Amino acid sequence: MEKIRNFCIIAHIDHGKSTIADRMMEITGTVSKREMKSQLLDSMDLEREKGITIKLAPVTMHWKGYTLNLIDTPGHVDFSYEVSRSLQAVETAVLVVDATQGIQAQTLANVYLALEQDLTIIPVINKIDLPAADVEGVAKQIINLLGCKREDIIEVSGKTGLNIDKILDRLINLDIKIDTDTNCATKALIFDSYFDDYRGVVLYVRVFEGEIDKNSEILMMAAEAKGLALEVGILTPKMTPKDSLKAGEIGYIVTNLKTTREAKVGDTVTLTKNPAIQPLPGYKNVLPFVYAGFFPVSNDQYKDLKEAIEKLSLSDSALQFAPENSPVLGFGLRIGFLGLLHMDIIKERLEREFNLDLIITNPSTNYEVLLNTGELIEIKSASDLPDMTEIAEIREPWVKGEIIVPREMIGNVLNLINEKRGYQTNLSYIEERAVIDFEAPMANLLTDFYDQLKSATSGYASFNYELNGYKAEDLVRIDFLVAGEKMDALSVMAHKTEAEAIGREVTKKLKEVIPRQNFEVALQAAIGARIIARETIGAYRKDVLVKIHTGDRDRKAKLLEKQKRGKARMKRFGKIDIPPEAFTVMLKRN
Question: How far apart are CA 119 and CA 92, in angstroms?
Fold first, then answer.
């Protein structure tokens, strides 16, 4: 037990977590030079292309007689619950800060998570070999944040491998006592789970008490699901089977479960023959709070889309979906995500791995609606909103956010927050950077807040947020009508003060996207029966007089009258083919 060190690497996106993990595996001889490739623990093509970690990955290494268990965690805000479970599975966190960028929003968020779990933090400055590295400036930021000494900070280069061995030496020299009792009822924390097509659900666990033997019967305490541990072992990073996993160890369990919904992240695994009475603390059911409609371009692909989402949801328990039917787009699915990055990743995986052509409607968040009868219902899209006469109040989700920017850009950021109906709650400084705490409605941050923030700060800002409950606001539903016909898939919820501006903006965009017809088409935005904005797509003009070679006024008038009647008839019966782009006009406001 004294020879085990469980640790994870935490950092902002792109500060070099996965590269440092690569060097550690090389130095400890866990992976041979022949098998080595960059970002070895990032197994998905998408992770390599975007340069981010989406799925965390554990690996067991050996160094100077010690066993080191590393968990490479995702850095993005959408997966912060996974990060918090990974932090609960370890005793030490290696905090990596980029020498060229300094402390960013996600760095702070992860440090707070680590301090909540009472972890020992080892500060590391990475990328010291780059010409733009400001090692002393970043060291000051870290000292301000953690209150550590200058000599505690290890300066490394993940690319060249410089000083990586110092991190490993610091880990084994730490005086860490792991309090576990092998005779107690078994308790193991699931910090990740995924579905393998050939083996079923595989759990990544940290055993806190007792031990789990191969072929033992296991019980997931929160999900109340029973299963069999068909195989147990450690990851090096390949699966290496063992006879049992003992207290203090991190490893995997291959089970006979059919879906990760039976083994969610944060759940406690125990044995059915001697079950634990209390589960490990901190489990919560992660609920999505961004919803979007996914429709196949051709209705023939609906079955393929449904099967593809079912496959992805086997290994992603946070993914929730329900069938949706739109008069314009046909059959599709309304899918719930943890955030916008999560949505982007699922969309790309559907298009790449399953060759689907998709139309995605504007992402929206969920709302709580209090009816006059006192009943509280939850709606996931504006088209589900009951009649306004039945509603007492509508509550929308708000978020607590944190933005880190250079001091001279504070004004731009505060203006942007005000534009989004948010307000600043605190302003503090870390050396040359300002930390702005704010609160804002989730719906206003969904479309392109991050892009606007990057534009306002020349790319220097970093942003992190978490959900902060629901607030009752003066909200209305904006409907959009094309040639008098209401398009449910375009309906949005908005604050009363912003409704007219959104109505004008969207009708203007629709005018650019919807093709002209042989008759005039009215585009309208409405709240209930009140029209708040209108644009008109002019009709094609067909010159019916071109075939008349004489100057007979009566014949000309007769033909023009006939054309007028034809256009009026078309306007009554004509159907408009709405292109897919019309349903994504809200995704990017500008």
Answer: 5
Q: How far is CA 559 from the centre of its chain?
A: 60
- Bridge partners of residue 321, in order along the sequence: 335
Is pLDDT larger for residue 338 or for residue 205?
205
Return the percent helix, strand and coil in the chain, to nearest 5: 30, 35, 35
pTM above the 0.90 mark?
no
Q: Determine phi and psi for 282, rounding to 5 degrees.
A: 100, 0
CATH of 368-473, one of 3.90.230.10, 1.20.970.10, 3.30.70.240, 3.40.50.150: 3.30.70.240
What are the Cα distances from residue 514, in Å, to 242, 255, 522? 62, 52, 11
Tell me the per-residue pLDDT of 362-383, one tens digit each, with 9 for 90 and over: 788 889 999 999 899 988 878 8
> What is the four-CA torsion angle of 111, 117, 123, 125, rounded to 10 degrees?
-40
Which is nearest to 363 in space by CA: 261, 315, 291? 291
Q: What is the CATH number of domain 477-584?
A: 3.30.70.2570
Asked if residue 223 lies in contact with residue 263, where contact means CB atoms within 8 angstroms, the answer is: yes
Q: CA 89, CA 248: separation in Å to the nearest integer?
A: 9
